[in-house]
Design goal:
binds flavin-adenine dinucleotide; 3 domains; about 35% helix; globular; alpha/beta; FAD-bd; 15 helices; about 25% strand; D-Amino Acid Oxidase, Chain A, domain 2; 8-stranded mixed sheet; FAD/NAD(P)-binding domain
Length: about 425
């Protein structure tokens, strides 16, 4: 098994790698997936967006996910003190899915990978990519360490790097670039949600906004556990003393809404702290490779866009690779970078405007404007390529300008 030849080598079996592998396998391409961990394995990223249902559906992975019974997510709730801003995905500007799931990722990713293995996709778990060499024509030779520490080599016509925070090709090829998103960090765990209220309140995904930079996510799962996590500036995350469990317990006291429900509950694993999570790269593709998912770009968890971008970019990359393998011409700059960055830039604006406070002004302004809410809701559902939505097409101006007008109006009212 020293040397293997395939059409496409996929690095990583997360949602991005699995969607890419499924598409290529369905299109009769010879694929090998190499995954560093043993599945099931924990990873963060538990709140999905409706848009990603299109991707799982298109590659034939939706039914197997439906069978599991993950918690249904029909919208998202944002709280600021007494003000509640509820988004309902059935009331959105763009046509498309009006529900998705809140998922335990260990189970979710394991279902995807197991299904692919059952369909005959070659996935090697506990195999780690450690090096790569590209030839001038874009073909490559990748060095992989197996579970016994033995090296072997995969020759591929294309590589799809879906290695998430492993960021394999960005590291090996020096493609990392500082993110334009302000630096934030996070601390999170799961709890056995023994004080979960009955009804919708118990299962609602909620973002409790403590201040402009600091918020708590609450993501209830169908197994009775709930994911809780704080996001804030490093100064906030570092200001608490003790180990990660003590720090998270102290942080919970800052959430008036959730402290009683979660205070003192046993954490299912020691809270994980990820610092400066936003990532970016100099380029999304090169001759013989494409970066997808977190390996390419990660903005911020506030709008739960990570998995959806991971599957959107994986599906697009897999389609373009298939075209090339079928000897069709591909304009990677336009068809891949142009397409992906259009969506990334919309979300990047929303993330930036969240932390300037402008978007929070729109969310928590009363009375609500139902038409504007529908348009923003379509963005939050992941439909960020729909130019009929003014909040997509003019994303760079609309949020800022509207927030300005609201603030002017409020100042005027205060002066009357
Ligand atoms: P992953 O799911 O990370 O999979 C990559 C795989 O590659 C891993 O299994 C890894 O073991 C493997 N790998 C790594 N290195 C190697 C190697 N050298 N060789 C072989 N295999 C390798 N997203 C959401 O959609 N919703 C959320 O609510 C959300 N919350 C988040 C909260 C925080 C604090 C953070 C930091 C992120 C959050 N995200 C969220 C983002 C989400 O985690 C990612 O966008 C998503 O997991 C990306 O999927 P992926 O398939 O690209 O990578």
């Amino acid at each position: 098994m020293d040397e293997i030849h395939v059409d496409v080598l996929i690095i990583g079996a997360g949602p991005s790698g699995c969607v890419a592998a499924s598409y290529l396998h369905n299109n009769k391409k010879q694929v090998k997936v190499v995954e560093k961990s043993k599945f099931p394995r924990f990873v963060i990223g538990e709140s999905l967006l409706p848009r990603c249902m299109d991707h799982f559906d298109e590659v034939g992975l939706l039914d197997v996910l439906k069978d599991y019974g993950f918690e249904i997510k029909r919208g998202a709730r944002f709280l600021k003190g007494d003000i509640v801003c509820n988004f309902d995905f059935s009331k959105k500007h763009t046509e498309g899915w009006d529900w998705t799931w809140q998922v335990t990722r260990a189970d979710f990713d394991n279902i995807l990978a197991t299904e692919l293995v059952n369909r005959g996709v070659d996935i090697s778990f506990e195999h780690e990519v450690v090096g790569v060499e590209f030839n001038e024509d874009g073909t490559s030779k990748t060095s992989i360490k197996d579970e016994q520490g033995q090296l072997y080599y995969v020759h591929a016509k294309h590589i799809i790097d879906s290695s998430g925070y492993g960021r394999v090709l960005p590291r090996l090829l020096g493609l990392d670039k500082p993110s334009a998103i302000p630096a934030h960090s996070s601390i999170f765990t799961h709890v056995k949600d023994v004080r979960r209220p009955d009804g919708e309140e118990g299962t609602l995904i909620t973002f409790d906004v403590l201040d402009k930079d600091t918020w708590l996510w609450v993501i209830p799962f169908s197994n009775g556990d709930t994911s809780i996590g704080f996001v804030g500036l490093n100064e906030f995350i570092d200001a608490f003393e003790g180990d990660t469990s003590e720090r998270l317990q102290s942080m919970l006291k800052h959430s008036k809404y959730y402290n009683d429900r979660f205070q003192g509950l046993e954490f299912k694993f020691p809270p994980v702290c990820i610092k400066n999570f936003s990532k970016s790269v100099k380029q999304l593709y090169g001759k013989g490779y494409a970066l997808t998912g977190n390996s390419a770009e990660f903005l911020d968890p506030v709008f739960s866009s990570g998995v959806t971008f991971a599957t959107e970019s994986a599906l697009k990359a897999a389609k373009l690779v298939t075209k090339e393998l079928n000897n069709e011409t591909v304009d990677w700059e336009e068809e891949y970078t142009g397409y992906i960055m259009k969506g990334v830039q919309v979300f990047a604006t929303y993330v930036k405007e969240w932390y300037t406070g402008n978007l929070q002004t729109l969310f928590f302004h009363r009375p609500e404007n139902p038409e504007i809410k529908k348009q923003i809701c379509a963005v939050l559902a992941g439909y960020v390529w729909d130019d009929t939505n003014p909040f997509v097409k003019k994303h760079d101006r609309l949020v800022k300008n509207l927030a300005y007008l609201i603030e002017m109006e409020e100042k005027e009212k205060a002066n009357q």
